[in-house]
Amino acid sequence: MSTVALPEYVHHYHDPAHADDRSFVRKYIFSTDHKIIGIQFLFMSLTFLLIGGLLAMLIRWQLGWPGRPLPGGAVLGETRMPGGIMLPEFYNSLMTMHGTIMIFFAVMPLLVGVFANYLIPLQVGAPDMAFPRLNMASFWLAVVSGILMFAGFFVEAGHAAAGWTSYAPLSVVPEYSGVYNGQVLWTVSLIILGFSSLAGAVNYITTIINMRAPGMTLLRLPLPTWALFITSILILLAIPVLTGALILLLFDQVLGTGFFIPEMGGEPLLWQHMFWYFGHPEVYILILPSFGFVSEIIANGARKPVFGYTAMVLALAAIAFLGWIVWGHHMFQSGMNPMLGVGFMATTMVIAVPTAIKVFNWIGTLWQGNLHFHSPMLYSLAFVSMFVIGGFSGVFLASTPVDIPLHDTYFVVAHIHYVLFGGSLFGIFAALTYWFPKMFGRTMNERINKIHFALTFVFFNLTFFPMHELGVNGMLRRVYDYTQYALFQDLVDLNRFISLSAFALFASQLIYAANYIWSLGRGARASANPWRANSLEWTVPSPPPHGNFDSMPVVYRGPYEYSSPESEEDYLPQDAPPAEAPRPEPAPTFA
Amino acid sequence: MSQAAAGAITLYPRRPMPGMGVYNLKLGMWVFLLSEVMFFSSLIGAYIILRFANLDAYAQPGAVLNVPLTAFNTFVLICSSVTMVKGFAALQTGDQRGTRLWLLATVFLGAFFLSVQGIEYYQLASEGFVPSASSYEAEGAAIYGMTFYTLTGFHGAHVTIGVLALIFTSVKAFRGGYTPTKLGGVEIMGLYWHFVDLVWIILFTIVYLI
Known about the structure:
heterodimer; A: 591 residues; mainly alpha; Cytochrome C Oxidase, Chain A; 2 domains; B: 210 residues; 6 helices
């Protein structure tokens, strides 16, 4: 009988006979276990999500009641809110940091740092990541970067104020923005975060390609892993471009070069091209993992196989590829050659095709399913419906003639929040809730989750849908006090309504946070497979032990065999051996 | 390895382990080098755009930069790739002494390249070819100096990291850390080193010769 050469890491699988003798520090702080690193990322990014949300609330106060003192706002200090009245410089920092923190320190680590780390080895059947120590370095670099970014709030002249896109020369010349050290900290922090993302991406890609269990062919991978794989490729190739651009920006800021300063021969448009060459793949980095989570959860909630699994994978790949050739649609108004704009408009609209394939396949998965509306399912359905709205407004904005009047208005703000909050964040809520039992061995309170879902869904739409109206009326984003323009005087009421909805939206999130924290210690004990799901992570105890699997799992089928006639139950785990023994291999014949 | 795993796998002997058929370190290094390609592409792309936007700011090839010296230095770096290959080939045949000597030769050539680059920088700076606009005195404009030092500097930083890694690899080789069956460290060191060499050939062409 031929033998299979086993990889070296086979010794890293969980050995029940061997006690886990790692010290507390090695186990929970400087841990190389992918599950602990994922949970570390979880608490870091949830903290930043809360901070980013608070910044948004301050922005909404100023927009709802321009110039009115915020009760208790004076505690933020004379340089920010003297007497509770927000200074314009502080407003600029707030909107810059709301974007930066939400994108780089909340949504991106929540999607990739948390779930790529936690899920990939479990879903492919590996004991850990390919490079566990590099993985640990990835987390701690992110911490250093997060501390630097947060420290910017406390330096003289305030935090970065050039927007999350940091367009040069505004971000380079301190006289333009009034900010010096904050802007440098912003740049340095993101360079460090780039190394963290890169270390993660190398790990994820290597693990998925090389550490799959026997039988786990590429087209048997669960869709979250597929989505994270393609996201990792985007991170791997996009982040170095951002790093390159940031390094040139840093040289301009501190060394006196002028790569982006016109009077020194530099090119401000070069920054925009480099930033968006990274920035548009980044947009897909922020949504593709949610696509994966939602595909998994909708199949689970519908108790049906994912409709068009292969098409789902190919659509992910197509979106990722097209994402590289559309960056100029952020720059229709930048003074770039209009001929380029036509090409970018066409490629951007083509992205609607693979995206629509995914949406139709989600609907196809739901069609005639035995629907179970558990809370992750509700979040996933919210994801699909809200993402469709965001996708449609994206098609509007992709069209150059429509984009020219709508550029830099609240219509764009509405669009980004429909895809990033309505899309990514609902996907994150779905995933956080769905994998909570696996991560912590306990279950969240389902009733409170459903209340949170309903409130979030309602107040999300009340907050962001009217922003389309503001945008069509021409209200510009990033403006400290729009009431100074007579044109926008009559938008105060609508803005006030949005602000009140936003406060309610924020308050609703506290319900989820309280439920999450309470369930960590007090939730009902979870079984290994509470959702009756098929993929490999549900075959191990909740939470899984160090080393994940007692032995190398063997995979016999794809991950979405729900309601299969082969099984008594309505699910069929990937590693359950087929009922009948495989037919013997035919003896070789010699003609 | 537990018995269960062995049993489960030998049951289906024709079910191969999925993967690329290379060990993780090597695959990881290739993946990392892809990101390095994107990093240098972003810098080279910025260089090309800035140069086309400021055609007059760039002096004729050879007017400011010392091309013969750098051509010699390029030759040194290519030689260091050869010694790296020889070191890996020696390791594959189990020739420990050969491995150590060829690795040391690579360290030496890498350090030599960096020294020549340092001398070149010193000469250029003393002629007023500097990266900042305020003290620029050489032919061409300041943007020429900025792009030159950024591109060659980031390559130099990669060579420096490579030399440090080579010293680490050599020390490990002298302690007998590599064998013909356990040679991943030397192989991925070689991959990185050849990449740095390749980048230099591109940079030498577009920065010095064109």
